[in-house]
Amino acid sequence: MYKDKVRKAVIPAAGFGTRLFPATKVVKKELFPIIDRDGKAKPVILAIIEEAISAGITEIGIVVQPDDVAIFTDLFKNPLSKELFQKLSPQNQEYSQYLQDLGSKIVILTQEKQEGYGHAVFCAKDWVQNEPFLLMLSDHVYRSDTEISCSRQILDVYEQVNQSVVSLTIMPETMLYKAGCVKGVWQDLNSDLNSILTVTQVYEKPSIEYARQHLHVEGMAENEFLCVFGLYVLTPKIFDCLAENINKNLRYRGEFQLTTTLDNLRQKEGMTGYFVKGKCFDTGMPDAYRQTIIDFR
């Protein structure tokens, strides 16, 4: 149905970062620093882009507010001044050149009006065209438990099943208020939970009562549920589903969301869930960001 190899990644980064205010009044949350495994202080979005590149992605579209185009262009496209470049260590001079090379793989896209995460994804439609793509949250970074990166794991599953794939992790019921939740049937219950799921429902931030009644997955503890890990491989059919919601003005809490649209996509084409062998680190809230600073390296 679609080509097997996924070449493009989309990173929506047009939010206001209200949960990290007032810091986000002067610094975009995607540019908050973290210390990576290599000991370098990097903006969060750079770690995300490197995750995508390591998985074999060759083109990356970052969706930003129009007023922020210059900021992201400066990071990835503009070279340092000669004076500043000469002040860097030889290793950082080399890294500066690496950033320029990375910039050649990056396209800056815009969301003219901030109307939700699903709307931001829709703004990448013309750039993505008729291809499957990797969708990445702009405030999550990942660390694989294996030699295969988290993004590569989900891309490998897509190449097996040739339909949209949502990455999954386990969350206690007390955390459901902040996550999209998935129900489905394990394709091989005899293996461990690091396996593939046929998705039968996707639900945005369910109540504990709803989850207990409708979203429990066989083989899991009563108070644990499968939630979205933050990585997706989506077919271009998602844009038709989003367009339908936008044209009908179907909003969730005032915005065009992605998770509710994912269930429409599942109904049209089917969907696979994959329990990722790895950890997801949230940088979008103060306490979570603090913990990421401690744990990510």
TrEMBL record:
It catalyses: alpha-D-glucose 1-phosphate + UTP + H(+) = UDP-alpha-D-glucose + diphosphate. GO terms for molecular function: UTP:glucose-1-phosphate uridylyltransferase activity. InterPro entries: GalU_uridylyltTrfase_bac/arc (IPR005771), NTP_transferase_dom (IPR005835), Nucleotide-diphossugar_trans (IPR029044). Residues 8-291 form the Nucleotidyl transferase domain. Its EC number is 2.7.7.9. The keyword DNA damage does not apply. Keywords: Nucleotidyltransferase, Transferase. GO terms for biological process: UDP-alpha-D-glucose metabolic process. This is UTP--glucose-1-phosphate uridylyltransferase.
